[in-house]
Design goal:
The protein is of the alpha/beta class and about 325 residues long. Helix content is about 35%, strand content about 15%. The chain has eight helices and nine strands. The longest helix is centred in the last third of the chain and has 45 residues.
Amino acid sequence: MCTTCGCGVGDTRVAGESVPAPASTDAAALPESGQARRYRPAGVATPADADGGYRRNEHHEHHGDGEHHPHHGHHGHRGGPGTATTPARLVQIERDILASNDAYAAENRRRFEEQGIFALNLVSSPGSGKTSLLCRTIELLRGRLSLAVIEGDQQTSRDAERIRATGVPALQINTGKGCHLDAHMVGHALQRLSPGDDSLLLIENVGNLVCPAAFDLGEAHKVVILSVTEGEDKPLKYPNMFAAASLMLLNKIDLLPHLSFDVDLAIAHARQVNPALRVMRLSATTGEGFIEWLAWLDEGCAAAQRSRKTTIDALRRRVAELENLLSSGTRCCDG
């Protein structure tokens, strides 16, 4: 769902199978026409099917426990068809939707931490070269790291097919009219893909520099890809994305001799938005700059694996302490 552009949900497919949209029927109160239509979270109940209630449990499938989780404030317990739509209410609806997404993202993040998975959310505008960059990355990491890929695209499975051709497992999410992935979709994809422990998970978001900035997928970092065939002012035009990212990959630098693109100006614009943004210059075509990129990936994977090992060691120590306590109690009783 998207409260920014009103893009459609409800026709999301994971590996070709439909995924119910998360329930969020506060939007039942949204107006049907006019400017405010933009704000309708697509895929939620419409006045025709909304009665102030909500679609129950459709989005609980990847929880697997059927419990009613505390994040369900977005279900629309407030308001109904007769509720007036005001700017304050629209803001509340958007907050509820993002809160719902954050809850799913927290579940994804917990899974990543428990399994020592280093998960990255790759975002960019269309045509930046994300899939080519992924293919080159996979080629160079082959045999060094366990890898899996989640591909986001509105309609086709072409990118997932390209990734699978490299021998790495990849799962396609088709968002239909939706312009971004959300944490709920990724949760379903994780169930099917089952990335291994201590692995690298690369999530290629839908090409869009606006909405993906607002949706946490549970990833360790957002990585924004800007190509030199785009304008140097992209970071200023779409600041939220560059502010949300930890790393910017400046791709297609092999084309620089043929372009008037000002690299220093582009980086300056990006750091004007996000002074802490790390920047790497590379080419998915020639492989230039990939040493630094691969080292960054190695470092992230190692950190995720260390964190998992630390957690496991702490749990083992605690189990040993409890076993000693039990054993001491048994000996005391025996005596």
